[in-house]
# Entry
Amino acid sequence: MLKEKGMIPILFINFQLVLNRRLQLKYLNFRMITKILYTLFIKPITLLPFKILYLFSDFLYLVLYRLLGYRVSVVRSNLKNSFPEKTDKEIKDIEKKFYAHLCDLIVESFKVYSITEKEFFEHIEYDDNGLIDKYKDRHICVIGTHFNNFEFAATSATRAVGRTVHALYSKLSNDFFNTKMKESRSQFGTEFIEKHDAKAFFAEKHDNPIAVIFGADQSPTYSKNVIWTEFLNQETACFFGPEKFAKELDMVVIFTKTIKVKRGYYKLTFDVVTEDPLNEEHGAITERHNRYLEKVIQENPQYWLWTHKRWKRKRNEDEVVLPPSF
# Structure
Protein backbone atom coordinates (compact mmCIF):
# COMPACT_ATOMS: atom_id res chain seq x y z
CA MET A 1 0.00 0.00 0.00
CA LEU A 2 2.85 2.35 0.86
CA LYS A 3 4.50 1.54 -2.42
CA GLU A 4 1.28 2.30 -4.25
CA LYS A 5 0.94 5.62 -2.40
CA GLY A 6 4.57 6.41 -3.11
CA MET A 7 3.95 5.93 -6.80
CA ILE A 8 1.62 8.95 -6.97
CA PRO A 9 4.23 11.69 -6.35
CA ILE A 10 6.73 9.81 -8.52
CA LEU A 11 4.27 9.70 -11.41
CA PHE A 12 3.45 13.38 -10.83
CA ILE A 13 7.14 14.32 -10.91
CA ASN A 14 7.68 12.28 -14.08
CA PHE A 15 4.69 13.97 -15.67
CA GLN A 16 6.13 17.39 -14.80
CA LEU A 17 9.50 16.45 -16.27
CA VAL A 18 7.88 15.29 -19.52
CA LEU A 19 5.73 18.44 -19.67
CA ASN A 20 8.70 20.72 -18.99
CA ARG A 21 10.70 18.89 -21.64
CA ARG A 22 7.94 19.38 -24.20
CA LEU A 23 7.65 23.07 -23.31
CA GLN A 24 11.41 23.48 -23.67
CA LEU A 25 11.34 21.78 -27.06
CA LYS A 26 8.42 23.97 -28.12
CA TYR A 27 10.33 27.08 -27.00
CA LEU A 28 13.50 25.97 -28.80
CA ASN A 29 11.51 25.22 -31.96
CA PHE A 30 9.90 28.67 -31.78
CA ARG A 31 13.33 30.32 -31.39
CA MET A 32 14.61 28.32 -34.35
CA ILE A 33 11.65 29.41 -36.48
CA THR A 34 12.19 33.08 -35.59
CA LYS A 35 15.90 32.81 -36.43
CA ILE A 36 15.09 31.21 -39.77
CA LEU A 37 12.47 33.89 -40.46
CA TYR A 38 15.00 36.61 -39.68
CA THR A 39 17.85 35.01 -41.65
CA LEU A 40 15.90 34.05 -44.78
CA PHE A 41 13.33 36.86 -44.97
CA ILE A 42 13.97 39.93 -42.82
CA LYS A 43 17.77 40.15 -43.11
CA PRO A 44 17.81 40.02 -46.95
CA ILE A 45 15.13 42.75 -47.02
CA THR A 46 17.25 45.00 -44.81
CA LEU A 47 20.08 44.82 -47.35
CA LEU A 48 17.94 46.21 -50.16
CA PRO A 49 18.36 49.88 -51.16
CA PHE A 50 15.64 52.29 -50.09
CA LYS A 51 14.20 52.55 -53.61
CA ILE A 52 13.49 48.82 -53.70
CA LEU A 53 12.23 48.85 -50.13
CA TYR A 54 9.60 51.41 -51.06
CA LEU A 55 8.36 49.19 -53.88
CA PHE A 56 7.93 46.51 -51.24
CA SER A 57 6.15 49.10 -49.05
CA ASP A 58 3.71 49.87 -51.89
CA PHE A 59 2.93 46.15 -52.21
CA LEU A 60 2.60 45.82 -48.43
CA TYR A 61 0.06 48.66 -48.47
CA LEU A 62 -2.17 46.67 -50.82
CA VAL A 63 -1.92 43.55 -48.65
CA LEU A 64 -2.14 45.17 -45.21
CA TYR A 65 -4.82 47.74 -45.97
CA ARG A 66 -6.71 46.72 -49.09
CA LEU A 67 -6.64 42.94 -48.69
CA LEU A 68 -6.41 42.23 -44.93
CA GLY A 69 -7.84 45.45 -43.54
CA TYR A 70 -5.37 45.32 -40.65
CA ARG A 71 -6.95 47.11 -37.66
CA VAL A 72 -9.00 49.32 -39.96
CA SER A 73 -11.88 49.44 -37.48
CA VAL A 74 -9.53 50.68 -34.72
CA VAL A 75 -7.93 53.28 -36.98
CA ARG A 76 -11.26 54.56 -38.32
CA SER A 77 -12.80 54.78 -34.86
CA ASN A 78 -9.78 56.65 -33.49
CA LEU A 79 -9.83 59.10 -36.38
CA LYS A 80 -13.57 59.78 -36.17
CA ASN A 81 -13.44 60.37 -32.43
CA SER A 82 -10.35 62.57 -32.72
CA PHE A 83 -11.68 64.68 -35.60
CA PRO A 84 -15.49 64.85 -35.22
CA GLU A 85 -15.56 67.93 -37.43
CA LYS A 86 -14.19 66.08 -40.47
CA THR A 87 -16.35 64.43 -43.11
CA ASP A 88 -16.25 60.70 -43.88
CA LYS A 89 -14.34 61.50 -47.06
CA GLU A 90 -11.70 63.45 -45.12
CA ILE A 91 -11.38 60.64 -42.56
CA LYS A 92 -10.98 58.11 -45.37
CA ASP A 93 -8.25 60.23 -46.96
CA ILE A 94 -6.29 60.42 -43.69
CA GLU A 95 -6.78 56.67 -43.23
CA LYS A 96 -5.29 55.88 -46.66
CA LYS A 97 -2.32 58.19 -46.07
CA PHE A 98 -1.76 56.66 -42.64
CA TYR A 99 -1.53 53.09 -44.00
CA ALA A 100 0.88 54.23 -46.72
CA HIS A 101 3.01 55.83 -44.00
CA LEU A 102 2.73 52.75 -41.76
CA CYS A 103 4.07 50.51 -44.52
CA ASP A 104 6.97 52.92 -45.11
CA LEU A 105 7.64 52.84 -41.37
CA ILE A 106 7.78 49.03 -41.39
CA VAL A 107 10.36 48.79 -44.19
CA GLU A 108 12.37 51.71 -42.79
CA SER A 109 12.49 49.93 -39.42
CA PHE A 110 13.77 46.81 -41.18
CA LYS A 111 16.48 48.87 -42.85
CA VAL A 112 17.90 49.97 -39.49
CA TYR A 113 19.03 46.36 -38.89
CA SER A 114 21.79 46.66 -41.51
CA ILE A 115 22.17 50.36 -42.36
CA THR A 116 25.58 51.99 -42.16
CA GLU A 117 26.16 55.01 -39.95
CA LYS A 118 26.88 57.22 -42.97
CA GLU A 119 23.71 56.21 -44.79
CA PHE A 120 21.56 56.45 -41.67
CA PHE A 121 22.52 60.03 -40.88
CA GLU A 122 21.90 61.01 -44.49
CA HIS A 123 18.25 60.16 -43.78
CA ILE A 124 17.83 62.05 -40.51
CA GLU A 125 18.98 65.48 -39.43
CA TYR A 126 18.27 67.56 -36.36
CA ASP A 127 17.91 71.18 -35.31
CA ASP A 128 18.14 71.70 -31.56
CA ASN A 129 17.77 75.51 -31.70
CA GLY A 130 20.79 75.77 -29.39
CA LEU A 131 18.94 73.97 -26.58
CA ILE A 132 21.37 71.09 -26.19
CA ASP A 133 24.31 73.41 -25.56
CA LYS A 134 22.19 75.62 -23.32
CA TYR A 135 21.29 72.69 -21.06
CA LYS A 136 24.56 70.75 -21.31
CA ASP A 137 24.94 70.80 -17.51
CA ARG A 138 21.35 69.73 -16.79
CA HIS A 139 19.58 66.38 -16.81
CA ILE A 140 17.16 66.18 -19.75
CA CYS A 141 13.81 64.40 -19.97
CA VAL A 142 13.08 63.78 -23.65
CA ILE A 143 9.41 63.35 -24.54
CA GLY A 144 9.28 60.83 -27.36
CA THR A 145 6.11 59.93 -29.24
CA HIS A 146 4.91 57.53 -31.94
CA PHE A 147 4.76 60.29 -34.52
CA ASN A 148 6.53 59.83 -37.86
CA ASN A 149 9.55 57.52 -37.77
CA PHE A 150 10.05 57.05 -34.03
CA GLU A 151 12.54 54.24 -34.74
CA PHE A 152 14.88 56.67 -36.52
CA ALA A 153 14.35 59.23 -33.76
CA ALA A 154 15.31 56.81 -30.97
CA THR A 155 18.28 55.39 -32.89
CA SER A 156 19.73 58.84 -33.62
CA ALA A 157 19.00 60.29 -30.17
CA THR A 158 22.50 60.15 -28.71
CA ARG A 159 24.01 62.16 -31.55
CA ALA A 160 21.06 64.57 -31.62
CA VAL A 161 21.22 65.27 -27.87
CA GLY A 162 25.00 65.31 -27.69
CA ARG A 163 25.35 62.77 -24.87
CA THR A 164 24.46 59.14 -24.19
CA VAL A 165 20.70 58.84 -24.23
CA HIS A 166 18.86 56.20 -22.21
CA ALA A 167 15.55 55.02 -23.63
CA LEU A 168 12.87 53.25 -21.60
CA TYR A 169 11.24 50.35 -23.42
CA SER A 170 8.98 47.36 -22.90
CA LYS A 171 10.74 44.06 -23.54
CA LEU A 172 9.41 42.04 -26.46
CA SER A 173 8.04 38.59 -25.61
CA ASN A 174 10.28 37.06 -28.29
CA ASP A 175 13.83 37.03 -26.87
CA PHE A 176 15.49 36.72 -30.28
CA PHE A 177 13.71 39.71 -31.80
CA ASN A 178 14.10 41.66 -28.54
CA THR A 179 17.88 41.22 -28.81
CA LYS A 180 17.90 42.17 -32.49
CA MET A 181 15.73 45.23 -31.80
CA LYS A 182 18.08 46.44 -29.04
CA GLU A 183 21.14 45.83 -31.23
CA SER A 184 19.73 47.85 -34.13
CA ARG A 185 18.44 50.75 -32.03
CA SER A 186 21.56 51.00 -29.88
CA GLN A 187 24.13 50.80 -32.67
CA PHE A 188 24.71 54.59 -32.62
CA GLY A 189 24.88 55.04 -28.87
CA THR A 190 21.37 54.90 -27.42
CA GLU A 191 21.18 52.68 -24.33
CA PHE A 192 17.94 50.86 -23.47
CA ILE A 193 16.43 50.32 -20.04
CA GLU A 194 13.51 47.99 -19.43
CA LYS A 195 10.61 49.85 -17.84
CA HIS A 196 10.60 47.73 -14.70
CA ASP A 197 14.24 48.80 -14.12
CA ALA A 198 13.44 52.51 -14.40
CA LYS A 199 13.06 53.19 -10.67
CA ALA A 200 16.42 51.60 -9.90
CA PHE A 201 18.09 53.59 -12.69
CA PHE A 202 16.71 56.93 -11.48
CA ALA A 203 17.58 56.08 -7.87
CA GLU A 204 21.27 55.78 -8.80
CA LYS A 205 23.62 58.69 -8.26
CA HIS A 206 24.30 60.37 -11.61
CA ASP A 207 27.41 62.53 -11.40
CA ASN A 208 27.19 63.55 -15.05
CA PRO A 209 24.09 64.97 -16.75
CA ILE A 210 21.86 62.26 -18.21
CA ALA A 211 19.21 62.27 -20.91
CA VAL A 212 16.27 59.87 -20.90
CA ILE A 213 13.64 59.26 -23.59
CA PHE A 214 10.11 58.49 -22.45
CA GLY A 215 7.53 57.06 -24.85
CA ALA A 216 4.78 59.28 -23.50
CA ASP A 217 1.80 58.71 -25.79
CA GLN A 218 0.82 55.08 -25.17
CA SER A 219 -2.16 53.97 -23.10
CA PRO A 220 -1.22 53.37 -19.43
CA THR A 221 -3.41 50.30 -19.14
CA TYR A 222 -2.26 49.07 -15.74
CA SER A 223 -0.53 52.08 -14.23
CA LYS A 224 -2.28 53.42 -11.12
CA ASN A 225 -0.66 56.85 -11.20
CA VAL A 226 -1.94 58.65 -14.30
CA ILE A 227 -2.96 62.13 -15.37
CA TRP A 228 -6.29 62.64 -17.13
CA THR A 229 -6.61 65.31 -19.77
CA GLU A 230 -8.60 66.22 -22.88
CA PHE A 231 -6.57 65.03 -25.85
CA LEU A 232 -7.88 65.00 -29.41
CA ASN A 233 -11.43 65.62 -28.18
CA GLN A 234 -11.37 62.65 -25.80
CA GLU A 235 -10.75 62.04 -22.13
CA THR A 236 -7.28 60.50 -22.12
CA ALA A 237 -5.17 58.79 -19.47
CA CYS A 238 -1.48 59.77 -19.66
CA PHE A 239 1.63 58.29 -18.11
CA PHE A 240 2.81 60.30 -15.10
CA GLY A 241 6.35 58.87 -15.27
CA PRO A 242 8.02 61.64 -17.32
CA GLU A 243 6.71 64.34 -14.99
CA LYS A 244 7.50 62.29 -11.86
CA PHE A 245 11.14 61.66 -12.72
CA ALA A 246 11.62 65.16 -14.18
CA LYS A 247 10.71 66.59 -10.78
CA GLU A 248 12.78 64.06 -8.82
CA LEU A 249 15.96 64.85 -10.80
CA ASP A 250 15.13 68.47 -11.73
CA MET A 251 15.27 67.59 -15.43
CA VAL A 252 14.68 70.01 -18.28
CA VAL A 253 11.72 68.59 -20.19
CA ILE A 254 12.06 68.70 -23.98
CA PHE A 255 9.46 67.67 -26.54
CA THR A 256 10.85 66.13 -29.74
CA LYS A 257 9.09 66.58 -33.05
CA THR A 258 9.96 64.39 -36.04
CA ILE A 259 9.24 66.10 -39.35
CA LYS A 260 8.95 64.12 -42.57
CA VAL A 261 10.96 66.11 -45.11
CA LYS A 262 10.20 63.65 -47.90
CA ARG A 263 9.87 59.90 -48.24
CA GLY A 264 12.60 58.31 -46.12
CA TYR A 265 14.05 61.60 -44.87
CA TYR A 266 13.33 63.11 -41.46
CA LYS A 267 14.27 66.04 -39.26
CA LEU A 268 14.21 66.23 -35.45
CA THR A 269 13.34 69.50 -33.73
CA PHE A 270 13.11 70.34 -30.03
CA ASP A 271 10.82 72.47 -27.87
CA VAL A 272 11.19 73.18 -24.16
CA VAL A 273 8.18 72.05 -22.14
CA THR A 274 9.70 73.38 -18.91
CA GLU A 275 13.16 74.14 -17.56
CA ASP A 276 11.87 74.50 -13.99
CA PRO A 277 9.92 71.30 -13.21
CA LEU A 278 10.15 71.79 -9.44
CA ASN A 279 7.89 74.84 -9.59
CA GLU A 280 5.28 73.31 -11.89
CA GLU A 281 1.88 72.37 -10.50
CA HIS A 282 0.94 68.70 -10.33
CA GLY A 283 -0.01 67.49 -13.81
CA ALA A 284 1.06 70.66 -15.61
CA ILE A 285 4.07 69.11 -17.35
CA THR A 286 2.07 66.09 -18.52
CA GLU A 287 -0.78 68.25 -19.72
CA ARG A 288 1.55 70.62 -21.56
CA HIS A 289 3.59 68.04 -23.49
CA ASN A 290 0.30 66.48 -24.62
CA ARG A 291 -0.71 69.86 -26.04
CA TYR A 292 2.49 69.88 -28.06
CA LEU A 293 1.73 66.42 -29.42
CA GLU A 294 -1.90 67.29 -30.12
CA LYS A 295 -0.83 70.27 -32.25
CA VAL A 296 1.66 68.14 -34.19
CA ILE A 297 -0.99 65.49 -34.89
CA GLN A 298 -3.58 68.03 -35.98
CA GLU A 299 -1.12 69.48 -38.50
CA ASN A 300 -0.29 66.07 -40.05
CA PRO A 301 -2.64 63.40 -38.67
CA GLN A 302 -1.51 60.66 -41.06
CA TYR A 303 1.85 60.34 -39.30
CA TRP A 304 0.67 59.24 -35.83
CA LEU A 305 0.28 55.56 -34.89
CA TRP A 306 -3.51 55.19 -35.13
CA THR A 307 -3.48 51.38 -34.90
CA HIS A 308 -2.79 51.73 -31.18
CA LYS A 309 -5.85 51.44 -28.89
CA ARG A 310 -5.01 54.71 -27.18
CA TRP A 311 -8.38 55.24 -25.50
CA LYS A 312 -9.13 51.75 -24.18
CA ARG A 313 -8.77 52.91 -20.58
CA LYS A 314 -11.84 54.69 -19.20
CA ARG A 315 -11.89 57.21 -16.37
CA ASN A 316 -13.27 56.36 -12.94
CA GLU A 317 -15.68 58.79 -11.31
CA ASP A 318 -13.12 59.87 -8.70
CA GLU A 319 -10.50 60.78 -11.36
CA VAL A 320 -10.35 64.43 -12.46
CA VAL A 321 -9.67 65.69 -15.99
CA LEU A 322 -7.20 68.58 -16.05
CA PRO A 323 -8.08 71.65 -18.18
CA PRO A 324 -5.83 72.54 -21.15
CA SER A 325 -2.76 74.58 -20.08
CA PHE A 326 -2.56 76.59 -23.32
